[in-house]
Amino acid sequence: MSPLVLIALMMVVPSVYGHGALYLPSPRNAVEKILPEFVNGKSPSTPCTCADGYGGPDAAKNGCDQGIRSGGGGQPCLWFSQGCSIGCDTCKNEGPGLAPHTDKVGFRIRYCNSTLKGTLPKEAWTMNIGAVEGSVNDSYRFNPWRAPGHAPVADACGLAGGRHPQDLPGGDAVYFTTQFATLGDAGSVVLPPSPTSTIWHAGDSVEVAWGIRYNHGGGYQYRLCPATENLTESCFQKTPLDFDRTKQALVWNNGTRLSIPGVWVDQGVLPMGSTWARNPIPRTNDDNKGLANESSCPGPTGRSGPGCTQFKAPCPQDTGILPWSTDGSGQGACSGDWTAGVISDHVIIPKDIKPGQYVLGWRWDCEETAQVWQNCADVTILAANE
C-alpha cells in the first residue's frame, strides 16, 4: 500500500467504539488501576468505568463510585483485536468498512477471501434484526458474532489499543502508555500474572461478570487455560466453560440484581460442542443507515427515533436514553452503552479438571464491527473436596 493511499484511508476512518471488559474476577488487563492516573476510575484516555455520564460529566477526570465495576479500573476495556472476519486465518487491519458506514470496521466487508457463511440463528442476532439474511442490507454478516468463535484474534488476551502503531486507527484504537503496556502490546506477553484471591473448586458453579463501555452487540464465552502454558486461543479453546442457564443476571453498580432469561448458542460455534451467550444489552444505534428500517433511526444520534434500540431492553424500568447519559448513542436503564452495571453469569468448572493455577479467558465477539474483545484473569482451582 502506497503512503498516499494509507494517508487517504486514515483520513476516512473515524473512531467507532465497541469496548468492554471483564470485571469479575479482576483481570490482568486492569493492572493499571493502581496507578495515580487511574485511581477510583479516573482515566487520562478512554475511561472504562466512570463513563457515559455515570458518576457525573467530569467522572473521567475526578473518578466515581465504581461499585461492582471496581475490579476493572485502569484500561481493561482497551484490549481487543480488529479487522477480524469470520472464516479468516488472521485479523487484518486494512481499512474501513464500506459505504454508507465507512466508520464501522467490517461494515459489508470481509477481510479475506473466505466463503464461510454465518451460522448464528436469527433469534440470537443482536443487530439489524429486521434484515433479510444474506441481503445487501445484512451489513454485519461477516462479523465475529455471526459465527461465534470462527473469527481469528490477534492475541488471546487482547492487543493494547487493538492495533499496532503502524496500523490504521479505526475503532477508538488508543492506549495511554504506562509502565505496564503501550499501544500494540500483546496481553499474553506483557501483562504480569496478578495475585488472586479467586479460588474455585472442581465441579463448582462460580460467578463471573463483564461490562460494556461501548456496545456493539454480539455475544461472549468464558474459557480456561493452565497458567503454566502459553496463553493462546487454541489453549483457551480446549476448556470452554458451560453456563448455568438459570443464573444470568444484570447487576447494577449499587448491587441491585435482576435475573433475566439468557439466549444461548451451541450450534455452529467454535469450539464445537461449547456454548456462547448472547449479549443481553441492546445496542442503541446512532443511525440505521445501510440497515433495515432506516427511517426508524435517521440519526445523527440514538435519540433520533424508536428504531435506534436494536431489541427490547431486558429490564422493565428501561424507557429509553437517560438524560444524564453523555454519549451520542447514550444508555438507558439497561440498554445502549450501559456503564451502570455488569452482566453476571455462573459458569461450571469441570469436575475432572486438574487442580492448579489457571487463567480465565473472556472473549466477546462483536456483531456490529469486525472486532473481538478479550481479557485474562488469574484463578486458583482446587479439588472438589479440598
Low-confidence stretches: 1-16
- Structural class determined from secondary elements: mainly beta
Give the N-terminus to C-terminus distance in angstroms: 58 Å
What is the 3D form?
globular
How would you characterize the overall build of this protein?
There is one protein chain. The protein is mainly β. The protein is 6% helix and 19% strand. It contains four helices and 14 strands. The strands form two sheets. Strands 2, 3, 4, 6, 10, 11, 13 and 14 form an eight-stranded mixed sheet that branches. Strands 1, 5, 7, 8, 9 and 12 form a six-stranded antiparallel sheet that branches. The radius of gyration is 19 Å and the shape is globular. The N terminus is likely disordered.
